[in-house]
Predict the structure.
Amino acid sequence: MSTTTAARLSSELLSDAPLGVVTAHGDTLQVVFERQLRAPVEKVWAALTTPERLADWFGDAVVDLRVGGSIRLWKEVDVQITACDPPSSLAWTWELDGRETLVRFDLKSEAGGTALTLTHSGLSPRKGQGAGVRAGWHAHLEALPDAVEGRKTPIEIKRAREKAPGDAYPSLPA
């Protein structure tokens, strides 16, 4: 896919979903995303926890869904599950930039669908692997509604979407 095509696709395929809210907590950053999904909480939970649905929006996964279990992502990254309360909350630790970060999904059933809050905390305030987390989660969350319905988003579109927010997520210092 050419850069021009990817840019066009990313701008056309991004919803008007709000950016993640980034806050500093001591020497770490936290990013929080809130999304409303027009699907029952059980379907959203399945998209967060079953390998087939995770592959549709986030990445290939092998899942041992229990506190103390793990999720192997992209055949190379292991995250440890620290909370699992179906269908309301799921959390895992993820080592990024030599830091143990925490990813937490909270789901709440609402009229017409599900409210999802994704919180990723413990991120480094400096450039590194974690610097791309903000735009990365934004792009992946764009694919979540399709995954809830069993549709896969092509990786090229996810990559294009990750670039789409541009300067909305400012660069971190070196």
